[in-house]
Design brief:
Rossmann fold, 6 helices
Length: 233
Amino acid sequence: MNLKDARALVTGGSEGIGYAIAEALVAKGAQVAIMGRDKPKLAAAAEALGALALPGDVGVEADAVRVTAAAIAGLGGLDVLVNNAGFGHFLSLVDMTTAKFEAVFRTNVTGAMLMAREAARHFIDQERGHIVNVGSTSGLGGGKYSTAYSGSKFALRGMSECWRAELRPYNIRVTLVNPSEVQTAFFAKLGRSQELSEKKLRPQEIADAVIGALEIDDRGFIPEFAVFATNPW
C-alpha cells in the first residue's frame, strides 16, 4: 500500500506504541485519526501529530460504531485500522477477580472485535483495506500472573486468524504484530518499575515494523510477526 494520502485510524493512539505508529503514518503522508479515552491527552497528541482526535472507549459498542463512522467521515474514507488499544491486570490465578479479568477482555478482545467489525464493513464495500492488530509475545506463550493479559492476546491471535480467513476474498489484509517488552508507560500504570535501557525495544521499532508490513505491494501481505530486542540484557 502506498501510504501517501492513505486514511488510517489508530486506537490507543495518544501514547506509546499507538502514538509511534500514528506518527510514522503521518510521516509517510497518511491522514490519521487517533482514538483514546483520555480526552486531554488525546487532544494534545492529535495536535502534535496533525491528526484527528476521536475520543472513545473501544470496549463500548456505541463508541466503536461512532468513532469508526467519524473517522470515515473526517478522513474521507478509511484504508487502515490499527487495533492497538490494550492494557493488563497481572495477578496470580487465585487473586484474579472477575471484574479485572473481564475488564482486560473487554478492551483487548471485545474492543478489538468491535473496531475490526466496523472497519471491515467499510473495507468489504470498497474491496480493500488493512487491519493491523497489536498483540504481544505474551500471546505466543503464557507466564505467571498473566492469566488475563496473556489470555486476551491469545484470543486476539485466534481472532486474527479467523478474520484473515474471512476477509482475504475481499482483498483485505489482516496482520498481527507481537511485540516483546517495549519501553512505554504500560508498566508504570501497573505500579511496576521498568528500567530504561538503550538495548530494549522502543515504540519506534514497533512502528517501523508496522509501516513495513503496510507498505508491501497489495498483492501480498504479512500475516503475523514478532519483534524482539536483539540483546536486551
